Amino acid sequence: MSTAIMTERRRLALRPGAWLVWGAVVFFLLILAGVVGAVVVDSFGTRWFSGWLPSGWTSRWYGTTWREFDLGNVLVVTLEVALAVVVVSLVVGVPAAYALARRTFPGKRVLMVAFMLPILIPPITYGVPLATVLYKFHLAGKLSGVILANLVPAVPFVILVMTPFIEQIDPKIESAARMCGARTRVIFTRILGPLLIPGMLAAAVLILVRTVGMFELTFLTAGSDSQTLVVALYYSVSAAGIRAQQEIDAMAVIYTLFMLVLLVVALRFVNPTQLVTQIKERD
Amino acid sequence: GGGAKDLTPANVPDSPKNPVTLNIIDVAGNLQLTKGMIDEFVKSHPKVIKKVTYTNATAPELPGKIKAQQSAGQVQIGLVLTGTDALSAGIDQNLWVKTDDYASRLGNPNYQAPAQKMQELAEGHGVEVVYYPSGPLIEYNPKTVSKPPATAEELLAWAKAHPKKFQYARPANSGPGRTFLMGLPYILGDSNPKDPKAGWSKTWSYLQELTKYVDYYPSKTSETMSNLANGSADIIATTTGWDINPRALGQVPAGDKVAYLKGMHWVTDAQYAVVPRGVSADVLSADLQLIKWMLTPQQQAKAYDDGYFYPGPAVNGVTVQMAPQKSQQVIQQFGRPEYDQWIPKFPTETSLPAKEQVAAFDQWDRTVGSGKVKK
Amino acid sequence: MAAPATAGRIALRHRLADRGMDRTLLLLVPAVVFIVALFIYPFVYGLQLSFQPQPGSETVQRYGSGPFADYHAFFADSYLRNTIWTTLKLSLPAGLFNVIASVPIAYRMRGRFRGKRTITTILVVPITLGTVLTAEGLLAFMGPTGWLNRLLLDVGIVDHPVRFTHNYWGVLFSLIISGFPFAFLLTLSYLSGIDPTLERAAATMGAGWWQRFRFITLPLLAPGLAITFCLTFVLAFSVFPSAVMVGDPSGTTRVISIAAFHAAFEQYDYSMASAIAMIMGAVELIVVGLVLGWRATLYRGATGGKG
Amino acid sequence: MTGSKISELRLDHVSRGFGEVLALDGLDLTIEGGEFVALLGPSGCGKSTALNCLAGLLPLTNGSITLDGRRIDTLPPEQRGFGMVFQNYALFPHMSVRANIGFGLKMAKVAKADARRRVEEAVALVQLGDHAAKFPGQLSGGQQQRVAIARAIVMEPALVLMDEPLSNLDAKLRLEMRTEIKRIHQTLGLTTVYVTHDQEEALSLADRLVLLREGKVQQVGPPETVYTEPANRFVAGFMGYRNELELPVSPGSGTTAGDKTVVLGELTGTRREDLGETAVAAIRPEDFTVGDGPNAMEVDVEVVEFQGREQAVQARTAGGDELHLRVQARLAPGDRVTVSVPPERVLVFAADSPAAPEEVA
Amino acid sequence: MTGSKISELRLDHVSRGFGEVLALDGLDLTIEGGEFVALLGPSGCGKSTALNCLAGLLPLTNGSITLDGRRIDTLPPEQRGFGMVFQNYALFPHMSVRANIGFGLKMAKVAKADARRRVEEAVALVQLGDHAAKFPGQLSGGQQQRVAIARAIVMEPALVLMDEPLSNLDAKLRLEMRTEIKRIHQTLGLTTVYVTHDQEEALSLADRLVLLREGKVQQVGPPETVYTEPANRFVAGFMGYRNELELPVSPGSGTTAGDKTVVLGELTGTRREDLGETAVAAIRPEDFTVGDGPNAMEVDVEVVEFQGREQAVQARTAGGDELHLRVQARLAPGDRVTVSVPPERVLVFAADSPAAPEEVA
Ligand SMILES: Nc1ncnc2c1ncn2[C@@H]1O[C@H](COP(=O)(O)OP(=O)(O)OP(=O)(O)O)[C@@H](O)[C@H]1O
Ligand SMILES: Nc1ncnc2c1ncn2[C@@H]1O[C@H](COP(=O)(O)OP(=O)(O)OP(=O)(O)O)[C@@H](O)[C@H]1O
Ligand SMILES: [Mg+2]
Ligand SMILES: [Mg+2]
Prior knowledge:
The complex is a heteropentamer, with 1 copy of chain A, 1 copy of chain B, 1 copy of chain C and 2 copies of chain D. Chain A is mostly helical.
């Protein structure tokens, strides 16, 4: 055991590259701590004109924002929307990514472009007509509309992210499952699913972030009781009127905390690097 | 709005058949002033409105949302509280109910004279609910600025002597910023203060000169406020509301002072209640009753608020003493007695119509903000 | 009679399967239906809108009401035209930096060591910040009296506050803070699919860590990196809130989405906004197309990690 | 042939190309229920391709497959109900040994208790009791291969396809597993198609051998026939006739078609094909005996390799031809000895008969 | 031993554990430059682990490795300069056959032209000329294995580690590749450590055999010694002494330690260990001959398998023991025959000698 550890130590000591990388990481994290810290500290400060810290501490900004935007309700809606979008986009997107990763067929390029467009084209162009369609079918103005609208960029996003992951998997494994009598659905749930977990997790996290942060489509299709957090946040930042900076910061902190909780929960369940190959990664 | 079926006064009942649920969307921060009025109305008129929901949103995206609902024949927003921007965008795109058709039901609001002028901007498609004279004013830190500039020229000279210490926010994103922009033509005596393209030559050359000594243009008014507070700026542009409220909120030291520039005209501002076309007759009927209620002096007094839109009421005969206790306290502590002199003293001008405003912002972006001017 | 027909049909099926057309393609159906139902119509609507200049708008006054008037207006006006370049100048470096920086860090995170999970989580956390907190944080932290400038002043490195925000760098910082974790998460996951045995094999052939990385890991990772770059690039290209909040929205960071926003929500000239958005999409498509075209030339098969 | 679940599997002109090249070229084969067929052939001849086509994992380029009169070549693999041991195992990396083996049972919705019992039996069968909870990445090569075998046979499928299932096992275990496979085949009546590179395995297990060469069938027949009467020089070479001597046909020798005995130079052999002027005599190393006898010749011993009870000897004839011998007598390099081989063990093929893959220089 | 680049490689008590279990347990071995050492042992006994430790791919849990007096166990693999054929090939999926083979040369910065030539030679050597431009995913199992071999030997490293390099090749090609490996080993003086499950391969290639069992060395010695004088019952079983008869030692028989000849019941054999009251007689199937002779016994033939020139026969003695025979005589199930075996071919071990892995039921 001791030799093994020594080896590791020596290697670490030998490589300037490692130090460089860790140094950069630490630098990045320090900057990040500064950025986040400044906002968090301010959100708890009474007033902070200059100096290292605010002149006094309070938590009232959280109370006022919470009440002003009825955040309890908003958070629940946000959570519902985010989870629904993540689940549906994975369910729809992963099989499509599979077909695109495994097959080359005439017209594939055209299809790829069609899938790319919702990510490339800003919602400015299609948001209003999309909302119109959804209102027409009585889907908008409530949760379903927000979810459907957010799915438009989310599904292609999943397809794009998942394709390389699927390409990485040896098709022989699927063949073996088929030989065991597994149908396509089972192959997805029991074979590809577990193997794709890091990819799906990454995709899920990214979609979650995008959905929770997607202002335009959400705003256009939301009803009064289906607003999400970002609508409130954007309002507090950029709507006309005077708001205390601390209140905005408090809102931003709530937003981040909310996302953080979701992220940590996600990472608790699956570690993006925890994978089958790790078993091979002896030490 | 293709799908929106038009109502006529004849088929809108005086009072809704059934109490309605009213979805109110506020894109101007107006609820801070009017929520109390509305809540009281709902409480006292359960037969008209059984429930009210509030949504806050940013103004730019609002017309799109209403358009989508109208095209689908599914208008879910019952009432919109807005500033001049979305108001005029909606007028252009024919989104709003023509409230003038229902003038009889609204009674005759006893607007103050400058507020009456602001109401005209609505072109009959909305009802002004709050009003304030706005600015342009300058706010300064008395510790570093012993004698505030009194004229535009002095301001320029001061900026030159104290580079990076004068600040105003990008007009497109800031009330005080745009008020400063719209107020300058009056102060500088430009040929046509209502025509930014052709009539503002003095203003534009003044701003281009001034920009040499301006470090940068924040994208939010509150940032100019914090810069004033933390000492990285010593003079900033402001308005009455932006002077009182941030000091009340503790964003700016309470001791900071305001001044005006010689030749000052108030460039007034107001907020409106508008009704999207396509709402049901019941909702429209409830809206009309509500708006009428909001324009009564007792209710208008609530608009004093924390000085956010100081003074706030659009109608005559509303005094601070009628305002809620808390309001009175804040105004007492952070308000400025000089405003009571200044407000009647200077001429009032309506702010530019939205189209011209946008053109002015665009021009400002291109010629002042773009940094093309060598510093 | 029937037999040859059946046989022919089956042979056809074999031939189609040979060209990649078999039942697997049915898996595309939900996604295609979805896109067609919810996206294609609105997109086509927007597209045709961009060919119908808004009557009475400045475009029409200047360039007539031909279908390409809005495009003409965009390219004729250098203030608008330059937004393409401004945006590329931000998004390409941001995309490249995020991908390039995440590779060595992710590469370091292979294998097992104590605290790995924590470090991973911490590195991914900024993804949760959102544009608003990032922007507010940058303004507060890097502002003239923020902690950073305070530190620099106290240590004596500078004697006037340095302006980090409201310029190109402010926006770039925010693109990195929000884009890096994104790229890192993807890279890390793509990396986990590569069989470590391959690197070991290379080691026995005398390849040092750099060569192993250069010749084995990187090529196998490249298809994933291409996608990662495309996504971070696209996110950076459509940057809006931070370009306004921490940038210099009238000057050095007047990105194309500000122009589109201006057209759509200030001038309410939806056809111009659509035209700008289409131009945006086209520019992105060119970059993404180039990258994906390059990707198509790479090896994209199993990397052993999962099989 | 007890209770086979299928009665006839027909392959008609089954072909499969990769790009331009046909990896499998018109394979015609009828397999009866319960039969054990071994595919043999040099590396890259299309054995795995044939199995994959049968399994439905590769679409055919041509031809058809019928099972009991029903065309199955368009059925997806999971609906054919066959089992397969993959050459590279293709274990599910995220499942334990037990879960890998039990996967098929789960798919077939076998009752839990029953499935558990069958899995444990299979685990014991392949002697992995100690490793049943491990993941494939934690197993040795041979252990992985055994999981693959267990996974295929635990299902008792109508047809099992095995692609070199024993290649990574040691001799002892291989013998045991071979016996096991034979036993299972017989008791369950599983029809089996088996790819192997181990002649002995093929000979001892199979009812019928199929010899492939570059995707084309060379000979089909029971092991004894193929072994003793290879159809052409290629098959002979592949079945262990390692020595090939090209010699002129003696004039007047064996002209009549029925005449099996041929004289080539000094050798007398058995004719297997129509001959031209020169012919090739193929002889197995182990058919030589040291000492005088029929077809005696003197050779110089050059290399001697110990191979247990026997020795592998490389020797050179007076004519300069290299000979491989396998003898029990203890020889040493430099010895000059006389070796002989019975004429019925010398097979004579036409010189242009399809040759075995070239020997390396 | 011509011009080996190393002169001595010492493994001292090399151990490697996975979790609690020691996969390799105190391996002591000294390999001389130019030597060809074969590791043998049942599946999962730690052969690949040993190679991985030698290559530097697995850190040791214990022990040390020294090369010519220099400790190398802490050196990273790329600095050891060894070549390795992986059991699962580990080909680079994104490189063509040619690029795979040339990778090491590129790393060693061999001049382009030279490298190209050497790659082409190696490609020809493993007979992959037609497939040199293909990618690993397009190759058959055997072809992949050949790429792995070529990739390791093209570098002509000081030490080559080969993990079952021929397991997926057909008999003919295997013989050829075996000859090639031997030739390269001899001409280049490469020191080789070779893992194989093929006894014949080990016997014919190796200078020395190392027998492993559950990570522990059982016997080290030249092939002939290990083959004819296995150190214990396990080695005997592994080296083909398939038949094990547990019999009581006849009283008074072979009491003196020097006395090799032992009588067990009716059998006379050669003693290999100190014995208790009962002992085990180990006999190879091929050491039996049909007909009367020493140690004659009557057996009933039960199963007969065709195996080419010989037959594998399963028979039962009068005492009910199962016997495996390998004979040339044509027997049929049901025959009752007399078989005999020379006493020097009957090895007698103590009953508690480490046994070969259990046979399956
Ligand atoms: N990563 C691992 N974790 C746990 N056990 C392992 C791991 N790798 C190998 N083992 C175990 O160590 C033992 C030795 O494995 P090794 O691969 O050395 O066997 P081997 O002798 O090469 O066998 P084979 O001939 O089957 O390839 C096996 O029992 C195996 O299950
Ligand atoms: N995907 C592919 N693309 C191109 N050629 C291929 C592909 N798969 C197989 N081949 C070629 O087809 C031929 C037959 O391959 P196959 O795997 O059937 O051989 P095999 O008989 O199983 O050989 P082995 O005994 O070495 O496993 C080989 O020459 C191989 O190179
Ligand atoms: Mg094969
Ligand atoms: Mg092994």
